[in-house]
């Protein structure tokens, strides 16, 4: 069964002129030459419409809950620190939309590089301000995000930025949820199992589905 769907929040964003929502309801209106040239992961067009290279998602036409036709490039900050007892911690935010606990991150603005976007989003969502020029970090390859809000015509790709704050912390840096984050917390992360157990037992929460594979992969490196 072919399903067509665009969430009301996207239609509201279009009506409000939100920059994250393409105003056109017809993806054939988009300049796909430019968008495909800028894409982090190549994707095909069929009859002038973008096709998710990792689909199907269950929604063939429309944008589901995402506003940007085709690939929306994001950046996520993977911030870790080790305390004086040798325990590794990962900085996570509780999303304000109820989708769970996630890495700080968000859209890469036009003309912005992913590293700058990750550091910017980190500061905006957690209050932790770091200088990309002096803070050791690793830029990982772009990867598809299995976001539950995606469709076959609108999807997310992220560039993860690893930020290691080092070892021997008596007190971890202070953080507080801001912007799109309900709250921000340091979570025990020696293993992925430790992290999920801490989220469930202490916060009654779960990892944002789109970030489960990414976080699990990073914690096993």
The outline comes out as elongated
Per CATH, the class reads Alpha Beta
| CATH fold category name | Nucleoside Triphosphate Pyrophosphohydrolase
Assign the CATH superfamily: Nucleoside Triphosphate Pyrophosphohydrolase
Question: What is the number of strand segments?
Answer: 12
Oligomer: single chain
Report the biggest beta sheet as strand number plus sense, adding barrel if it closes: 8 strands, mixed
Give the helix proportion (percent range). 10-25%
CATH architecture: Alpha-Beta Complex
Summing up helix and strand content along with how strands pair, one would put the structural category as alpha+beta
**Uncertain residue segments:** none
Tell me what the structure shows.
It is elongated and about 60 Å long. The mean pLDDT is 93. The protein has helices at 8-16, 32-38, 114-126, 192-203, 212-219, and strands at residues 4-6, 45-46, 49-50, 61-64, 70-82, 88-95, 101-102, 105-107, 137-139, 143-145, 154-164, 181-188. It has five helices and twelve strands. The longest helix has 13 residues, at 114-126.
